[in-house]
Amino acid sequence: MLPTPNFDLSPFNTLGLTAQARYGAQITFPDQVAELSAFAASVGLPLHIIGGGSNVVLHDMVEAVVGIMASKGRFAEQRDDGTTLVTAQAGEDWSEFVAWTIEQGHWGLENLAGIPGTVGAAPIQNIGAYGVELADRLDSLVVWDTVDKRERRFDRAECHFSYRQSAFKRAAGRFIVLNVTLALPSPWVPVLSYAGLDSLPPDVEAPAIMERVLSVRGSKLPNWRELGNVGSFFHNPIVHPALAEAIAGVPRYPQPDGSVKLSAAWLIDACGLKGHQEGGAGVYPNHALILVNNDGATYRDIQQLAATVRRSVKERFGVDLIQEPIEL
Ligand code: EPU
Description:
By secondary structure, the protein is an alpha+beta fold. The protein is 22% helix and 28% strand. It contains seven helices and 20 strands. Uridine-diphosphate-2(N-acetylglucosaminyl) butyric acid binds next to strand 13 and helix 6.
């Protein structure tokens, strides 16, 4: 596989930024990852992997070799204890994969329906929505280790998952996910705690939960195919309880260690920033945590807008917001 110089990344990022990589190539077979890694070393550039490009903010020129993960394949197997293991290659589309598991009668991923991106990207930031995180369902995964130059298997504990974090995100590119195995527990128990799902009847089945999740997502979050975005642009900040108490009205989610997670959307909203625009970038008018590409936004527009949001929230509430998407 010979990577293409000045590879166009514009079709491969949901924010819709115009961008190029020094070199780029599509990865259709897992063993091409090792080849691409060796190529990157030979030209003295880092290797970055993009899945669906739904959690990246790209510079105009990405000084790297970029691999577009497009490996396909998925299967299910039953364990003796009744648990179903479902495995998918990293390049599978996450939401298509979830829909497939439900169709096959393997329930447990329905709350994670509709999240843009690929299977391989899902563990990097421990995707989560509507009361379930990937960490709750992950059995194990296989990566290519670019330092030790070998395949390695990680079980759930070794992934060191926390809120939107993992060993893979902390190691910033060292590990490239090749395939992921989820464990779907038996008996299946619905998770209906999140606002929007709590009105469903207790005997509801997984397909109906998936349908509700898709409709709640559709009503709140813009479709990136129509309006470029990367989902939540900031983490919900986790702060000291005293700071949380000082902010009247903010939605608070107490954490097991005594700290408190706050709603970043509420904080940004309270600063009056919904609909605020800088260049081609704007804060989505219907959900303050989403930055959108309204009209030909550049990397610079997005970063200036993000800086305004961070500064406003810091000045008004004393809270630091952390950016969720990775910068390449
Ligand atoms: N809110 C506002 N203003 C807004 C939007 C929301 O005040 O403009 C308030 C709502 O009233 C609600 C609270 O903020 O009380 C939480 O809103 P929401 O339920 O939309 O969830 P979120 O905390 O903003 C998180 C995830 C989403 C995930 C949803 C649903 C993060 C950073 N974001 O958003 O994940 O879909 O919960 O589970 O944790 C993503 O990570 O890209 C993402 C979309």
